[in-house]
Amino acid sequence: MWYHRTKQQPGQAPVQAIDRSMGHRGARRATELAAAVLLASWLAGCAAPTGVAQQGSALPPGFVHLHAVAPDVQQDMRYYGSNNFMGRPVAGYHAPACILSEPAARAVQAAQAQVRPLGLTIKVFDCYRPQTAVNDFVRWGSDLSDQKTKPDYYPAVPKTELFQRGYIAEKSGHSRGSTVDVTLVVVDSMRASKVVRGPLTDGHEVDMGSPFDLFDARSHTDNPDLSPDVRHNRRWLRALLGQNGFRNLPEEWWHYTLDPEPHPDRYFDFAVR
Predict the structure, then answer these.
(1) Catalytically annotated residues
(2) Domains contained in the chain, CATH given
(3) Percentage, residues of the chain above pLDDT 90
């Protein structure tokens, strides 16, 4: 539990101890004054601060909600709902919120500032991931009877090989707080057509050749079997984020980690709220 210690304000009379020689009326008034001062101090301590600090007040030091830093970045937080490879909400996600280390959030903000004049916006699918969620992934991966999402997420990979191939693991870089899963969305197709390729429709994602979280070689960033337009789009996304301090995971075109990370050896487990 946190306690708030109130400093005496300039010009404020100190709360004096009640002398036993005071009359009952004076003692009562002094007691009421002391109670009023303490109540006002307590309420001031409970008042929510504004801006980024308001979002960060419920988070460990150094973490922020992305919407407090970059409110125009789109958020489609897949693990809060059922539109994911498990087909259900994932443990540890209590809100559809993107949380990142502050340096990572600022880097996403910088990338967003670059793409907006180009008719594009960044969309995030996942950000900080609690260890509780990773443990839920492991339980799901070990349950071979649950394969209802196989056609959409791992059609060419036996579930028995998800661990072996690295699609599921007991630790995730997301739990260190500086990894983000991203794509691009078209805002103005005319402007966007100058930098990305393929069918471009306002409000729709840029064609990256495979959906988010597809466990397949098609998701490898430099897969040579994809169309020239898709390969261009993936390279363009990688260049954009690389300019802002992120490195890509070669097996997943959407997966980017800030380099260097502020917490390279620590895996967090606070809930996403």
Answers:
(1) 252
(2) 1-47 (no CATH), 52-258 (3.30.1380.10)
(3) 79
